[in-house]
Amino acid sequence: MRLNPPMAPSFAGPFGSRTKLARAFTLVEVLLALAICAVVLVAINTVFATAVKLRDKTSEAVDQAMPLAQAVQIITRDLKAAAGPRGFMAGDFKCDAQSMGTTMGLTSGGSGLDFFNTAGVIDDNAPWGDVQEVLYQLSPATDNKQSAGMDLVRYVNRNLLATTTQAPQPQVLLSDVQAIDFECYDGTQWRTSWDTSLTDTNLPVAVRITIHQATPRDDTALKLEPVALVVPLTTLTITNVAQSASSSSGGIR
Fold this sequence. Notes:
two-stranded antiparallel sheet; elongated
C-alpha cells in the first residue's frame, strides 16, 4: 500500500485562490536587525550628548560674559556723565590719587578712579539732585572660597552737602578680577595719574580701563584675555582772559 506525503497547509484566499502561509524571520535576521538598531541608537546618543555639552558650555560662557558687559555699560555711562549735560566738569576728577575716597571715609587702596558726574537719578524720594560722586576701586572678595581674585566695587555718594562724612553705597560690579588699570589721555600721552584738585585743571580727553580677569580655580588651564575699554570725554574748555580786538593800521576816525 502506497502512502502519499502530507501536503503543506494552505487556505483559501478571498477570491478562492490558495496561498501558502507567510515565512517567519530567522534568528540571524532578528539579531542583525537588533544590531542595526543598536548602532543607530548609539549614534543618536553621541550626537545628543555632544549637543548637551555644547549647550552647557555656551550657557556658561554667556553667564560669565553678562556681568562683564553690565560692568562695562555702567562704567561707560558714569564716565560720559562726568562732563555734565553742557560739557562742563561736574567736579573733581582723580585717577590713582592719594585723596581718592576721602570724602566717603574710604582709603585709596591702589589703583582707582574717583570723580563727579551728573548720572544720578532724580525722584520724589531723594532729597538731592543728579550730581553724585563715584569711586571705582578693587576690594577683597566677599567670598574668598569661591572667588579667584578681587571684586570691582562701585561706591556712590549723593549727599554732597553733608557736614559729616557719609557712608557710600557699595555695588559689586564684577568678581574674579586680578588687576585693573586706569589711564587718562591728555591729548599727547596716556597717564596713570590725574588730579584736578592739584595740577590738572580739566577733564582728560579720554579714559582707558583695562580689566585683567583672574583664572578660575576650577579651570586653571583657561587663560582669560584682558578687556580694554576706552571712553572719550567731550568737554568744553573756557577761559576768563578777554580777547583784545586788533584795530586797523589807520585806526578808527
